[in-house]
Design goal:
Number of helices: 3
CATH architecture: Beta Barrel
Radius of gyration: 14 Å
Number of domains: 1
CATH topology: Thrombin, subunit H
Largest sheet: 6 strands, antiparallel
Mean pLDDT: 85
Order of helices and strands: HEEHHEEEE
Strand order of the largest sheet: 1-2-3-6-5-4
CATH class: Mainly Beta
Length: 105
C-alpha cells in the first residue's frame, strides 16, 4: 500500500467514522457522513469576522463520492433542509471542503 492509498483509507476509517469526527446529516436530500467545523470558517475568513459579517457560516467536509456534482461558489446546498450558499469549495484526497453561509429567513 502506498502513501496515497493509506491516506484514503484513513480518511474513510477515521475522519468519516461516526464514532470519531463524522456525523450523519441530510445533504441535498441524501443522508451522508459529514464533518462540520464552524470555528475553521472563522479562522479561514478572519477579514469577514473583523467586519462582523460572519453569521451562520460553517465549513462542511464531505466525501466526493457522496456529492454527485462538484460544489461551485454561489450555488445552493441544503444541509438538514436548511439552505446555504456555497462561498468556496475545494477538493483534496477525495474530500470536498465547502465554505457555507446560511441564507437568512
Amino acid at each position: 500500500m502506498n502513501f496515497k492509498e493509506a491516506t484514503a483509507r484513513d480518511v474513510k476509517n477515521v475522519f468519516f467514522n461516526l464514532n470519531e469526527f463524522a456525523e450523519l446529516r441530510n445533504v441535498n436530500g441524501n443522508n451522508v457522513k459529514v464533518v462540520i467545523d464552524e470555528a475553521l470558517f472563522k479562522e479561514k475568513h478572519k477579514e469577514l469576522e473583523a467586519q462582523g459579517i460572519i453569521q451562520n457560516c460553517l465549513v462542511l467536509f464531505i466525501q466526493v463520492e457522496d456529492l454527485p456534482a462538484k460544489p461551485k461558489a454561489e450555488r445552493d446546498l441544503f444541509v438538514d433542509d436548511k439552505k446555504y450558499k456555497i462561498l468556496d469549495s475545494k477538493e483534496k484526497n477525495g474530500v470536498y471542503e465547502i465554505d457555507l453561509q446560511k441564507y437568512e429567513e
